[in-house]
Amino acid sequence: MRATILNCTLKPSPEPSNTDALAELVAAGLRELGADVRTIRLVDHDIKPGVSSDMGDGDEWPGIREEILNSEILIMASPTWVGHPSSIAQRAIERMDAMLSETGDDGTPVAYNRVAGVVVTGNEDGAHHVISEINGALGDIGFTIPGQAWVYWNMGPGPGPSYSDTDHGHQYVHQVAGLMAKNLYAVAAALRDRPIPAEISRGED
Questions:
Q1: What is the pTM of this model?
Q2: What are the residue boundaries of the NADPH-dependent FMN reductase-like domain, all occurrences included (predicted)?
């Protein structure tokens, strides 16, 4: 089982990322179950704007797309900015829009039979909105979204410390992150063993 985490922080490496710290809890849970997990910090890559899988010279999205399609599990991890996903997360979703019309050799949409989940951080309210936006987009693209396939942390309304600066709420997020990992793994394993048939994915009788 392989999992790819897209860290959509706005902080380039090697700057510490609260989003990465929270996503690592889910990664640890997946590794315990036997999954091979890779995290990609998207801001470190030249991802061109657009809605195609390859935007030409210098575009690093094709390599990231290949990692996604070589994985059974996709996790998008985003900070919350003014109540919305980061601009990096939005760009990744826009690039994955091309997957809507892309199919495998048997005609199955490329995102089918893969599961997805969401990790959200932020020291302001809005995490559930971000989860809904990203999960809605990933579902439209064709990913399967298991129940309780998200974890978030925020400090509540107003300014305050970030996830890595406080122990506030950590017991809760550790518990939910572990559950998220188990649910993602279980549904990914079920789809691997009994994939959605190509004729169903194409809407055939």
A1: 0.94
A2: 2-153
